[in-house]
Design goal:
Elements: H1 6-16, E1 39-44, E2 50-61, E3 71-79, E4 91-94, H2 102-105, H3 114-119, E5 122-125, H4 148-157, H5 171-185, E6 190-195, H6 197-208, E7 213-219, H7 232-249, H8 251-256, H9 260-273, E8 277-281, E9 288-292, H10 295-305, H11 309-312, H12 315-325, H13 329-336, H14 344-354, H15 361-369, H16 378-384, E10 406-411, H17 419-426, E11 432-437, H18 448-460, E12 480-482, E13 485-486
Parallel strand pairs: 4-5, 4-6, 6-7, 7-10, 10-11
Antiparallel strand pairs: 1-2, 2-3, 3-5, 8-9, 12-13
Helix pairs in contact: 1-10, 4-16, 5-6, 9-12, 10-13, 14-16
């Protein structure tokens, strides 16, 4: 049996929760010729819940400088407001990755937005390269047999296999698409919510079309200076240290796992010397899953787990089981659950143009030496060396000045976009509120506190007067002391 490509899986899992033409953005104006024809449709969540919507497509040129060339059909879903006379400004939800489909990712969140949905339309647009908008995929997500070298070779060779000019799948071009959708649907102004890479998209839209934006909500912020993978080693190490410190300060966790740090270090040293080969049931398919458990596999699994507080609650138990019993199933299974659908061709089309050229190999290596997670830029840079690059405007990386109301959520223990990235964005804004949730991870819209604040912010279009007292009451779930759960 061949060892499966766990580093590839870890890399794709990591990217979830996270992150032009030769003309300037000013010339990329949205000029739809006709409205979008919408028809009744149903969006289905992974849990089988159905969301009624109205779906349609808008055809746009792949290269806006060549309108007669290849076309891209943008897939759009509008979830109409419940009220007969809704507010005129809808909520556009921008997905993460880059590489997530908004139409696939967000229906599961609609129940969290019920009160918002009563008053406003919710609009989902599959960004070009994702979902049903000319999807770009390199690796088969169902193929668990590829080795690392095979996956790397496929990713390097992928551009030649895709029916796309990959220079035209960058964020600025995608936000021009978004504004054309806005205009074609007949909305004058919109509210934006972006998560992870969706925050880069939202900030780009705000910069390019400031007069069209009523409010912006940013969750797990990618600031303009963020470079994919450059800060992952140090930010991940900080989140890991916070995890260990929280366990040591928790009576139940400390008494049950008094040597957790030492056990983790010894586990990594043991795997470095003699990585075992195991077969486990895949947590999603239940099919036999073969892998060699290397140090890199375990650190990748831990990194992925740190995204999600519900999974962090089981991390002490999972580390201890791997160390004491050589039982790697809990750690690997929970980390694989973080993996989400990602259109990897779109991911590389965006990040090879916008991020890879800014990587400093020497600095990345230095940071990697100071972290158990190591240098996470190596494969990424090698892949991007083979990909075409799109143009990025000079303003793309500049701090954004704006007086549009902006509400910002950050998780204190987020391993990929911790609060300091949001602070960089907030420094140049004049009408913002940044809320940090203690001990929480990547994305913070799921609590009643944040859902209420989000609703009130959209209603008033102001960060003034929001009752944020509930923020301090938001806490990560208690640690499991055994497989039956936390201590009562």
């Amino acid at each position: 049996m061949k060892p499966t490509n766990m580093r590839r899986i870890s890399r794709l899992s990591l990217l979830f929760l996270f992150l032009l033409v030769s003309c300037s953005p000013r010339s990329l104006s949205a000029t739809p010729e006709s409205p979008i024809q919408l028809e009744d449709c149903a969006l289905v969540t992974p849990a089988g819940m159905q969301v009624d919507a109205r779906c349609g497509t808008l055809t746009v040129p792949e290269d806006r400088a060549n309108p007669a060339g290849r076309q891209v059909d943008l897939h759009i879903a509008v979830i109409p407001a419940i009220k007969r006379s809704p507010e005129p400004d809808p909520l556009f939800l921008l997905a993460g990755g880059p590489g997530q489909s908004a139409v696939e990712a967000f229906p599961a969140m609609i129940p969290l937005m019920f009160l918002i949905h009563q008053e406003r339309d919710i609009v989902l647009v599959d960004q070009r390269g994702t979902g049903q908008s000319n999807p770009l995929r390199c690796l088969d997500p169902e193929d668990e047999t590829l080795t690392d070298d095979q996956a790397l070779a496929q990713l390097k060779a992928c551009p030649a296999t895709l029916d796309a000019d990959l220079r035209f799948y960058t964020t600025e071009i995608a936000m021009t698409d978004l504004d054309e959708v806005r205009a074609a649907l007949g909305y004058e102004t919109i509210n934006l919510y972006g998560a992870s890479y969706g925050t880069r998209a939202a900030l780009t839209y705000l910069r390019m079309f400031p007069g069209r934006v009523r409010t912006v909500t940013l969750d797990a912020v990618v600031d303009p200076s963020f470079v994919m993978f450059m800060d992952a080693a140090t930010d991940g190490q900080s989140a890991l240290e916070q995890f260990f410190t929280r366990c040591e300060a928790d009576e139940a966790c400390q008494s049950t796992f008094p040597k957790l740090r030492a056990e983790f270090d010894e586990l990594l040293a043991r795997l470095e010397e003699a990585p075992p080969h195991i077969t486990i049931p895949h947590p999603l398919t239940n099919k036999p899953f073969d892998l060699t458990v290397t140090r890199q596999v375990v650190t990748g699994m831990v990194f992925n787990t740190l995204y999600v507080p519900d999974l962090v609650a089981t991390l002490p138990l999972s580390i201890h089981a791997a160390y004491a019993d050589e039982n790697y199933v809990p750690l690997i299974s929970q980390a694989l659950l973080v993996n989400a659908g990602l259109y990897d061709g779109m991911f590389y089309a965006v990040t090879c143009s916008e991020d890879a050229p800014l990587i400093s190999a020497d600095e990345a290596a230095r940071r990697g030496e100071q972290s158990v997670f190591g240098d996470r830029t190596l494969d990424f840079s090698a892949i991007c060396a083979e990909w075409p690059k799109g143009d990025v405007s000079p303003d793309f990386r500049a701090p954004l000045s704006s007086d549009v109301p902006v509400l910002i959520f950050s998780g204190e223990a987020d391993p990929i976009t911790p609060p300091w990235h949001a602070e960089r964005v907030a420094d140049s804004l004049t009408n913002e509120l940044h809320l940090v949730f203690a001990g929480m991870g990547h994305g913070n819209l799921s609590s009643p506190c944040t859902s209420r604040l989000f609703k009130e912010f959209l209603e008033g279009a102001s960060v003034e007067g929001l009752d944020t007292a509930c923020v301090e009451a938001v806490q990560p779930p208690p640690f499991f002391v055994d497989f039956s759960g936390p201590r009562p």
